[in-house]
Amino acid sequence: MPFKSCFKFLPPVGFPGVVGFLSVIGLFGAVALVAQMAPVVTIAPQPTVKAKRGAPATVTLKVSLPAGFHMNSNTPTEPNLIPLTLKWTGGPLEGGVITYPKPALETYTFTAGKPISVVTGAFDVTTKFQVPAAAAAGPAAQTGTLRYQACNDRMCFPPKTLPVNVTVSVE
Amino acid sequence: MPPTRFFILLAVITGIAVTLGTIGWPTNEPAHKVVKDDKERKKAPDFQLKDANGKVVHLSDYKGKVVLLDFWATWCGPCGIEIPWFTDFQRKYKDRGFTVLGVSMDDGGWKDVKPFVAENKINYQIVLGDDKTSDMYGDVEALPTTFVIDREGRIASVHVGLVDKKEFDDAIQKLL
After folding, report:
1. Cβ contact (<8 Å) for A111 and B76?
2. Is B63 helix (H, G, I), strand (E, B) or coil?
3. What is each CA distance from A107 to A118, A139, B13, in whole angstroms?
4. Residue B20: what pLDDT?
5. Do residues B19 and B82 share a domain?
6. pLDDT per residue over B31-61, tens digit each?
7. What is the CA angle B138-B140-B145, rounded to 5?
8. What pLDDT score was predicted for residue A59?
9. What is the average pLDDT value for chain B, to the nearest integer?
10. Interchain contact, B15 vs A156, CB within 8 Å
11. Each residue of A8-23: pLDDT tens digit?
Protein backbone atom coordinates (compact mmCIF):
# COMPACT_ATOMS: atom_id res chain seq x y z
CA MET A 1 0.00 0.00 0.00
CA PRO A 2 1.47 3.39 -0.92
CA PHE A 3 2.50 5.38 2.14
CA LYS A 4 0.14 8.26 1.53
CA SER A 5 -2.88 6.00 1.14
CA CYS A 6 -2.45 4.97 4.79
CA PHE A 7 -3.76 8.37 5.87
CA LYS A 8 -6.69 8.80 3.50
CA PHE A 9 -9.06 7.96 6.36
CA LEU A 10 -8.15 11.23 8.00
CA PRO A 11 -10.69 13.98 7.41
CA PRO A 12 -9.42 17.18 5.83
CA VAL A 13 -10.03 19.20 8.99
CA GLY A 14 -7.72 22.03 8.03
CA PHE A 15 -5.27 24.03 10.10
CA PRO A 16 -7.79 24.96 12.86
CA GLY A 17 -8.46 21.27 13.40
CA VAL A 18 -4.76 20.56 13.75
CA VAL A 19 -4.33 23.39 16.22
CA GLY A 20 -7.35 22.17 18.17
CA PHE A 21 -6.04 18.63 18.30
CA LEU A 22 -2.61 19.75 19.48
CA SER A 23 -4.19 22.00 22.08
CA VAL A 24 -6.19 19.12 23.56
CA ILE A 25 -3.13 16.88 23.74
CA GLY A 26 -0.98 19.68 25.12
CA LEU A 27 -3.61 20.44 27.74
CA PHE A 28 -3.56 16.81 28.84
CA GLY A 29 0.18 17.01 29.54
CA ALA A 30 -0.11 20.43 31.14
CA VAL A 31 -2.80 19.20 33.58
CA ALA A 32 -0.49 16.40 34.70
CA LEU A 33 2.34 18.86 35.36
CA VAL A 34 0.23 21.58 37.02
CA ALA A 35 -1.19 19.00 39.45
CA GLN A 36 2.21 18.99 41.20
CA MET A 37 2.26 22.75 41.66
CA ALA A 38 0.63 24.70 44.46
CA PRO A 39 -2.79 26.02 43.43
CA VAL A 40 -3.18 29.73 42.88
CA VAL A 41 -6.03 30.89 45.11
CA THR A 42 -7.47 34.28 44.24
CA ILE A 43 -9.72 36.78 45.95
CA ALA A 44 -11.62 38.87 43.42
CA PRO A 45 -11.05 42.65 43.63
CA GLN A 46 -13.56 44.14 46.02
CA PRO A 47 -15.88 46.96 45.04
CA THR A 48 -15.94 49.84 47.51
CA VAL A 49 -18.30 49.04 50.39
CA LYS A 50 -20.67 51.90 51.15
CA ALA A 51 -21.26 52.07 54.89
CA LYS A 52 -23.69 54.31 56.74
CA ARG A 53 -22.89 55.32 60.29
CA GLY A 54 -24.83 53.24 62.78
CA ALA A 55 -26.02 50.77 60.11
CA PRO A 56 -24.90 47.27 59.20
CA ALA A 57 -22.49 46.72 56.29
CA THR A 58 -21.65 43.50 54.47
CA VAL A 59 -18.33 42.53 52.90
CA THR A 60 -18.32 39.51 50.59
CA LEU A 61 -14.99 38.02 49.55
CA LYS A 62 -15.21 36.02 46.33
CA VAL A 63 -12.57 33.32 46.58
CA SER A 64 -11.57 30.95 43.82
CA LEU A 65 -9.62 27.71 43.97
CA PRO A 66 -8.55 25.89 40.76
CA ALA A 67 -10.29 22.66 39.74
CA GLY A 68 -8.82 19.49 41.18
CA PHE A 69 -7.87 21.11 44.48
CA HIS A 70 -9.71 21.50 47.75
CA MET A 71 -9.05 23.38 50.96
CA ASN A 72 -10.15 22.46 54.46
CA SER A 73 -13.35 24.15 55.50
CA ASN A 74 -13.48 26.42 58.56
CA THR A 75 -14.52 23.33 60.53
CA PRO A 76 -12.13 20.51 59.55
CA THR A 77 -13.04 17.00 60.58
CA GLU A 78 -9.55 16.22 61.89
CA PRO A 79 -7.68 18.22 64.53
CA ASN A 80 -4.43 18.30 62.52
CA LEU A 81 -6.05 19.89 59.48
CA ILE A 82 -5.67 23.64 59.07
CA PRO A 83 -9.02 25.46 58.81
CA LEU A 84 -9.99 28.16 56.36
CA THR A 85 -9.80 31.30 58.49
CA LEU A 86 -10.64 34.92 57.77
CA LYS A 87 -9.31 37.42 60.30
CA TRP A 88 -10.07 41.12 60.22
CA THR A 89 -7.20 43.10 61.62
CA GLY A 90 -8.06 46.75 61.13
CA GLY A 91 -10.45 49.30 59.70
CA PRO A 92 -13.48 51.39 60.58
CA LEU A 93 -16.00 48.53 60.74
CA GLU A 94 -16.75 46.65 63.95
CA GLY A 95 -18.19 43.38 65.17
CA GLY A 96 -17.64 41.26 62.09
CA VAL A 97 -19.72 38.09 62.03
CA ILE A 98 -18.18 35.77 59.44
CA THR A 99 -20.15 33.27 57.38
CA TYR A 100 -17.98 30.69 55.67
CA PRO A 101 -19.08 28.67 52.63
CA LYS A 102 -21.08 25.55 53.30
CA PRO A 103 -18.55 22.72 53.36
CA ALA A 104 -18.83 19.47 51.46
CA LEU A 105 -17.94 16.11 52.93
CA GLU A 106 -15.62 14.51 50.38
CA THR A 107 -13.48 11.40 50.28
CA TYR A 108 -10.07 11.31 48.62
CA THR A 109 -7.41 8.70 47.96
CA PHE A 110 -5.73 9.62 51.23
CA THR A 111 -8.81 9.68 53.47
CA ALA A 112 -9.26 5.91 53.35
CA GLY A 113 -13.00 6.17 52.81
CA LYS A 114 -13.52 8.66 55.65
CA PRO A 115 -14.99 11.95 54.39
CA ILE A 116 -13.35 15.25 55.27
CA SER A 117 -14.91 18.70 55.37
CA VAL A 118 -13.69 20.79 52.43
CA VAL A 119 -14.53 23.65 50.12
CA THR A 120 -13.79 23.66 46.40
CA GLY A 121 -14.13 25.88 43.35
CA ALA A 122 -15.49 29.40 43.72
CA PHE A 123 -17.09 30.42 47.00
CA ASP A 124 -17.97 33.44 49.14
CA VAL A 125 -16.83 34.35 52.62
CA THR A 126 -19.23 36.95 53.96
CA THR A 127 -18.78 39.25 56.94
CA LYS A 128 -21.56 41.31 58.49
CA PHE A 129 -20.20 44.39 60.23
CA GLN A 130 -21.68 47.24 62.18
CA VAL A 131 -20.61 50.74 61.22
CA PRO A 132 -19.87 52.70 64.40
CA ALA A 133 -22.00 55.80 64.85
CA ALA A 134 -18.80 57.76 65.44
CA ALA A 135 -16.94 56.45 62.40
CA ALA A 136 -15.07 59.13 60.48
CA ALA A 137 -16.67 59.94 57.15
CA GLY A 138 -14.79 59.17 53.95
CA PRO A 139 -12.84 56.28 52.50
CA ALA A 140 -10.88 53.89 54.73
CA ALA A 141 -9.29 50.47 54.43
CA GLN A 142 -10.71 47.42 56.16
CA THR A 143 -7.84 44.92 56.30
CA GLY A 144 -7.46 41.30 57.18
CA THR A 145 -6.02 37.95 56.17
CA LEU A 146 -7.41 34.76 54.69
CA ARG A 147 -5.53 31.64 55.70
CA TYR A 148 -6.03 28.33 53.95
CA GLN A 149 -4.34 25.03 53.29
CA ALA A 150 -4.95 23.26 50.00
CA CYS A 151 -4.48 19.73 48.72
CA ASN A 152 -5.33 17.66 45.71
CA ASP A 153 -6.05 13.94 45.72
CA ARG A 154 -2.42 12.93 46.22
CA MET A 155 -0.52 15.82 47.83
CA CYS A 156 -0.86 18.85 50.04
CA PHE A 157 0.67 22.29 49.96
CA PRO A 158 1.82 24.47 52.85
CA PRO A 159 -0.72 26.79 54.46
CA LYS A 160 -0.83 30.23 52.89
CA THR A 161 -2.08 33.57 54.14
CA LEU A 162 -3.52 36.04 51.64
CA PRO A 163 -3.91 39.72 52.49
CA VAL A 164 -7.43 41.12 52.36
CA ASN A 165 -7.93 44.82 51.74
CA VAL A 166 -11.37 46.31 51.23
CA THR A 167 -12.09 49.98 50.67
CA VAL A 168 -14.96 51.22 52.82
CA SER A 169 -16.66 54.53 52.18
CA VAL A 170 -18.32 55.78 55.38
CA GLU A 171 -21.20 58.15 54.76
CA MET B 1 0.15 13.78 0.46
CA PRO B 2 -2.11 16.86 0.64
CA PRO B 3 -0.79 19.52 3.05
CA THR B 4 -3.82 19.17 5.35
CA ARG B 5 -3.22 15.46 5.85
CA PHE B 6 0.46 16.10 6.40
CA PHE B 7 -0.41 18.50 9.23
CA ILE B 8 -2.85 16.00 10.73
CA LEU B 9 -0.20 13.29 10.62
CA LEU B 10 2.27 15.67 12.23
CA ALA B 11 -0.31 16.52 14.90
CA VAL B 12 -1.01 12.85 15.61
CA ILE B 13 2.69 12.02 15.96
CA THR B 14 3.32 15.07 18.15
CA GLY B 15 0.26 14.30 20.24
CA ILE B 16 1.31 10.70 20.81
CA ALA B 17 4.84 11.82 21.71
CA VAL B 18 3.59 14.43 24.19
CA THR B 19 1.10 12.02 25.74
CA LEU B 20 3.59 9.20 26.12
CA GLY B 21 6.15 11.62 27.47
CA THR B 22 3.63 12.58 30.15
CA ILE B 23 2.07 9.27 31.09
CA GLY B 24 4.77 6.81 30.05
CA TRP B 25 5.12 4.25 27.29
CA PRO B 26 2.53 1.46 27.57
CA THR B 27 4.64 -1.69 27.84
CA ASN B 28 4.71 -4.63 30.21
CA GLU B 29 7.73 -3.07 31.94
CA PRO B 30 7.15 -0.87 35.01
CA ALA B 31 6.14 2.70 34.07
CA HIS B 32 9.49 3.89 35.45
CA LYS B 33 12.56 2.39 36.97
CA VAL B 34 12.32 1.43 40.63
CA VAL B 35 15.60 3.28 41.20
CA LYS B 36 17.77 5.37 38.92
CA ASP B 37 20.80 3.82 37.28
CA ASP B 38 24.05 4.37 39.20
CA LYS B 39 25.37 6.99 36.81
CA GLU B 40 22.15 9.01 36.97
CA ARG B 41 22.17 9.36 40.76
CA LYS B 42 23.12 12.71 42.26
CA LYS B 43 24.52 13.29 45.71
CA ALA B 44 21.82 13.98 48.28
CA PRO B 45 22.55 17.40 49.83
CA ASP B 46 23.75 17.16 53.40
CA PHE B 47 21.85 19.13 56.01
CA GLN B 48 21.84 19.74 59.71
CA LEU B 49 18.49 19.75 61.44
CA LYS B 50 17.45 19.23 65.02
CA ASP B 51 15.49 16.35 66.47
CA ALA B 52 12.96 16.62 69.32
CA ASN B 53 15.78 16.57 71.89
CA GLY B 54 17.69 19.37 70.22
CA LYS B 55 20.34 17.02 68.90
CA VAL B 56 21.75 18.08 65.53
CA VAL B 57 21.23 15.44 62.86
CA HIS B 58 23.11 15.41 59.57
CA LEU B 59 22.10 13.29 56.60
CA SER B 60 25.76 12.30 56.38
CA ASP B 61 25.37 10.61 59.80
CA TYR B 62 23.61 7.86 57.86
CA LYS B 63 26.26 7.29 55.22
CA GLY B 64 26.51 3.59 54.45
CA LYS B 65 22.79 3.10 55.01
CA VAL B 66 19.86 3.21 52.65
CA VAL B 67 17.78 6.21 53.80
CA LEU B 68 14.15 6.95 53.08
CA LEU B 69 14.02 10.73 53.53
CA ASP B 70 10.41 11.84 53.92
CA PHE B 71 9.33 15.49 53.81
CA TRP B 72 5.95 15.58 55.53
CA ALA B 73 3.69 17.59 57.86
CA THR B 74 1.05 16.81 60.44
CA TRP B 75 -1.59 18.70 58.38
CA CYS B 76 -0.86 16.64 55.28
CA GLY B 77 -3.44 13.88 54.82
CA PRO B 78 -1.53 11.89 52.19
CA CYS B 79 1.54 11.94 54.47
CA GLY B 80 -0.57 10.28 57.15
CA ILE B 81 -1.27 7.37 54.81
CA GLU B 82 2.41 6.77 54.11
CA ILE B 83 3.68 7.06 57.69
CA PRO B 84 2.43 3.59 58.79
CA TRP B 85 4.18 2.14 55.72
CA PHE B 86 7.41 3.82 56.77
CA THR B 87 7.17 2.56 60.34
CA ASP B 88 6.68 -0.89 58.84
CA PHE B 89 9.78 -0.47 56.64
CA GLN B 90 11.78 0.75 59.64
CA ARG B 91 10.79 -2.35 61.58
CA LYS B 92 11.42 -4.75 58.69
CA TYR B 93 14.67 -3.38 57.30
CA LYS B 94 16.47 -1.51 60.10
CA ASP B 95 18.80 -4.45 60.75
CA ARG B 96 19.82 -4.58 57.10
CA GLY B 97 21.31 -1.09 56.94
CA PHE B 98 18.15 0.91 56.34
CA THR B 99 16.52 3.81 58.09
CA VAL B 100 13.68 6.25 57.63
CA LEU B 101 14.33 9.90 58.41
CA GLY B 102 11.29 12.17 58.57
CA VAL B 103 11.64 15.90 57.95
CA SER B 104 8.61 17.67 59.35
CA MET B 105 7.69 20.92 57.60
CA ASP B 106 5.25 22.02 60.31
CA ASP B 107 5.44 25.74 61.05
CA GLY B 108 4.10 25.02 64.52
CA GLY B 109 7.24 23.08 65.44
CA TRP B 110 7.49 20.36 68.06
CA LYS B 111 4.28 21.34 69.85
CA ASP B 112 2.44 20.02 66.79
CA VAL B 113 4.86 17.28 65.83
CA LYS B 114 5.54 15.57 69.16
CA PRO B 115 1.92 14.56 69.87
CA PHE B 116 1.54 13.34 66.29
CA VAL B 117 4.69 11.21 66.56
CA ALA B 118 3.44 9.69 69.80
CA GLU B 119 -0.09 9.12 68.55
CA ASN B 120 1.10 7.44 65.36
CA LYS B 121 3.82 5.43 67.13
CA ILE B 122 6.48 6.63 64.70
CA ASN B 123 9.54 4.46 65.26
CA TYR B 124 12.09 6.43 63.23
CA GLN B 125 13.92 9.69 63.69
CA ILE B 126 12.09 12.94 63.01
CA VAL B 127 13.78 16.29 62.53
CA LEU B 128 12.24 19.70 62.05
CA GLY B 129 12.76 20.98 58.51
CA ASP B 130 13.30 24.52 57.28
CA ASP B 131 13.19 26.44 54.04
CA LYS B 132 16.93 26.08 53.52
CA THR B 133 16.70 22.28 53.54
CA SER B 134 13.62 22.37 51.35
CA ASP B 135 15.49 24.54 48.84
CA MET B 136 18.47 22.18 48.86
CA TYR B 137 16.14 19.42 47.74
CA GLY B 138 14.62 21.42 44.90
CA ASP B 139 12.18 23.63 46.78
CA VAL B 140 10.03 20.88 48.22
CA GLU B 141 6.53 22.31 48.33
CA ALA B 142 4.19 19.42 47.62
CA LEU B 143 3.96 17.00 50.54
CA PRO B 144 4.68 14.20 50.90
CA THR B 145 7.91 14.27 48.91
CA THR B 146 10.15 11.31 49.56
CA PHE B 147 13.72 10.62 48.49
CA VAL B 148 15.20 7.14 48.60
CA ILE B 149 18.96 7.50 49.12
CA ASP B 150 21.48 4.76 48.45
CA ARG B 151 24.35 3.64 50.68
CA GLU B 152 26.69 6.10 48.96
CA GLY B 153 24.43 9.04 49.86
CA ARG B 154 23.02 9.48 46.36
CA ILE B 155 19.38 10.00 45.43
CA ALA B 156 18.13 6.80 43.85
CA SER B 157 14.47 7.76 43.51
CA VAL B 158 12.12 10.64 44.20
CA HIS B 159 8.39 10.34 44.89
CA VAL B 160 6.19 13.43 44.88
CA GLY B 161 2.77 12.93 46.40
CA LEU B 162 1.12 9.78 47.61
CA VAL B 163 2.35 6.69 45.77
CA ASP B 164 1.98 2.95 46.30
CA LYS B 165 3.69 1.29 49.23
CA LYS B 166 5.12 -1.25 46.80
CA GLU B 167 7.03 1.47 44.92
CA PHE B 168 8.95 2.30 48.09
CA ASP B 169 9.37 -1.32 49.07
CA ASP B 170 10.76 -2.24 45.65
CA ALA B 171 13.19 0.67 45.73
CA ILE B 172 14.40 -0.17 49.25
CA GLN B 173 14.84 -3.84 48.47
CA LYS B 174 16.73 -3.02 45.31
CA LEU B 175 19.18 -0.85 47.25
CA LEU B 176 19.68 -3.15 50.25
Report:
1. no
2. coil
3. 10, 45, 38
4. 47
5. no
6. 568 899 989 999 999 999 999 999 999 999 9
7. 115
8. 96
9. 88
10. no
11. 555 555 655 555 555 5
Contact B75 A12 (CB under 8 A): no
pLDDT tens string B79-118: 999 999 999 999 999 999 999 999 999 999 999 999 999 9
Q: How many CA atoms lie within 13 A of B65 on its CB side?
A: 17
Same domain membership, residue B62 and residue B15:
no
Instruction: Give the pLDDT confidence score for residue A115 in this predicted structure.
Output: 95
Question: Which CATH number fits the domain that encloses residue B139?
Answer: 3.40.30.10
Question: How many domains does chain B divide into?
Answer: 2
Q: Give residue ranges of A with CB < 8 Å to any B CB.
A: 3-4, 7-8, 10, 12-15, 17-18, 21-22, 24-26, 28-29, 32-33, 36-38, 78, 80-82, 108-112, 116, 149, 151, 154-159
Q: Which of A114, A148, A156 to mutate to test the interface with B (most CBs of B within 10 A)?
A: A156
- The set of residues, in sequence order, having a beta carbon less than 8 Å from that of A162 and lying 6+ positions away, is A41, A43, A145, A146, A147, A148
Residue B116: list chain A partners with CB under 8 A. 80
